[in-house]
Amino acid sequence: xFVYEKKLQYPVNIKNTNPKLASLIISxxxxxxxxxxxxxxxLSQRYSMPYPELKGLLTDIGVxx
Amino acid sequence: xxxxKPEMNSCGQNAxxxxxxxxxxxxxxxxxxxxNPPRYENPVALQTGTLFPGLNLPFKAAMTDKLKTPNTAMxxxxxxxxxIDELGLYLTTHPKDQEVLNLYWSYIKLSQEGRKxxxxxxxxxxxxxxxxxxxxxWLNDPWPWDEGGNS
Lengths: 65, 151
What we know:
heterodimer; B: mainly alpha; two-stranded antiparallel sheet
């Protein structure tokens, strides 16, 4: 379903490592209330969206989230 | 499961609760962005987090101060691709804006050329990019999100 590129959208520049913060961020991404779950909800809702622009918008947001 | 009953009227009838405090009630609304709005230069857009000055709201100021992108072929492609992402989102809700559509296509052409130059320096961007002489270098470390893979 997805094509990915071996490239970041924005440069990463970590000056100080912080495992506790890293754990918090990764759970915001993939955890039970994370971005990954939200992205799948957008992609699920787009099927019942009647307006073409907003159907496209939900798909855009779900894919980039 | 027993839901905890919220305490009534602790903020008064004209206010609602935010985490830790009360704030005035309001009707939220999101106005539609107008056709062909002004744009930042692409590297500035990448640093700012939006292509459009009209969407550069005050809360983004602190972020822009701290983040500086390096002056590399990679950063150039990132800036171009970010502008393409932003224009793509804009076009999804403004599909009849011919001027922006032309710009979108011209950026896509630029990024296709930029990808070729980038790949000569840094290696394949897609798993399906052919690298006949070098073998299957797709697996080579570092990946862009690893240490040292981002310069």
